[in-house]
């Protein structure tokens, strides 16, 4: 090899030929073309009956949300003066929207993330994209109570939806009451309207993880998801 | 031009874009992400593309800019693989079992030598010498004068020759 190059030292044509003929080319994998076309196709009313089917856990959560929306107007409002509860409710609404109408599109997550970061004003230097037990299936910018935010949608192996919302913390302070030690962190845990929420502050951002994992066993699982997300995601505000 | 027609035209250059993406990112899955993001951006800004101009060069430009924006920060972290060799110096895939060992060795040395080049040398060299783009287009992609492109390609070749000689001498030891 060295001799070959030495012989051709200064010979541009030879080096060009070497590069063109011997440098390995990497053709795109077959699925990449399909993924690009899928990512480029606008999300519209192209949903068929087959995609209306939901796993049982998601269907149960959807039913719970429909019931909540049905009876919510008749309930006395207790959110006034409790910013955490207000936050919990808007995040739950967003979570419900994701369950009911959000699309699971893990194939477009790599492309969706930069756009979601750009449009939400929340950047992620590291992001937990999943493992054997839970997977990141969508990322999108959202608008919550007048603030831009980013939403990361996860789906666990049992079909439970877990939504991770990150938004500017502003002046909101998290109360001590309700905080629980999980691994090396002490986030706030709330139960609201049949959903579990884990809330914490990170880099002057407010982070909320919401799910329908509410039983003791499920809550333990939810805490595990929190540890995974908390330890592997580094958000920061870019505005 | 409709989005669909634009996408179909743009997809003709998928192979070349993916190849460059692999050499920039040095990682198969990151290369796929980079290419996908390139197409998403190209479609989003397709109204800025003037039909009749060089679509391939425009796509290469988007790919490079996206790489510099989203991927290069990680490159600066100078990842070290388990065997202690900087990842940039390690060959990437080598999944061509049908090739004989001598030819594979040439591939590996050439690839390894190329990986040691800085991006501003590697990209114009690949675009001009491997993809066959005219220097004017390479200059547009790189956002610099043609003279600078020529100089970088010249220096890239010099360095490449030097690296290849190093590997040749190393292999004799």
Give me some keywords for this one.
heterodimer, A: 239 residues, alpha+beta, 8 helices, 40% helix, 24% strand, disordered N terminus, B: 173 residues, mainly alpha, disordered C terminus
Give me a quick take on this structure.
The complex is a heterodimer of chains A (239) and B (173). Chain A is α+β, with helices and mostly antiparallel strands.
List the topology elements.
The complex is a heterodimer of chains A (239) and B (173).
Chain A: H1 2-7, H2 12-22, H3 30-40, H4 49-52, H5 56-71, H6 83-101, H7 109-120, E1 122-126, E2 134-144, E3 147-156, E4 161-168, E5 188-192, E6 195-202, E7 205-211, H8 216-232, E8 234-237
Antiparallel strand pairs in A: 1-8, 2-3, 3-4, 4-7, 5-6, 6-7
Helix pairs in contact in A: 5-6
Chain B: H1 3-11, H2 14-25, H3 28-44, H4 55-76, H5 101-115, H6 119-130, H7 135-142, H8 146-172
Describe the protein in words.
The complex is a heterodimer of chains A (239) and B (173). Mean pLDDT of chain A is 79; it is low at 1-9 and 43-53. Chain A has helices at 2-7, 12-22, 30-40, 49-52, 56-71, 83-101, 109-120, 216-232, and strands at 122-126, 134-144, 147-156, 161-168, 188-192, 195-202, 205-211, 234-237. With 239 residues, chain A is of the alpha+beta class. The radius of gyration of chain A is 23 Å and the shape is elongated. In chain A, the strands form 2 sheets. Chain A has a 6-stranded antiparallel beta sheet, sandwiched between helices. Chain A has a two-stranded antiparallel sheet with strand order 1-8. Chain A is 40% helix and 24% strand. The termini of chain B are far apart. In chain B, 71% of the residues lie in helices and 0% in strands. With 173 residues, chain B is an all-alpha fold. Chain B has 8 helices and no strands. The A-B interface holds A 1-3, 5-6, 9, 12, 15-16, 18-20, 22-29, 32-33, 35-37, 39-40, 108, 110-111, 114-115 and B 3, 7, 11, 14-15, 18-19, 22-23, 28, 31-33, 35-37, 39-40, 43, 66, 70, 92-94, 96, 103, 105-107, 109-111, 114, 125, 129-130, 157, 160-161, 164-165, 167-169, 171-172.
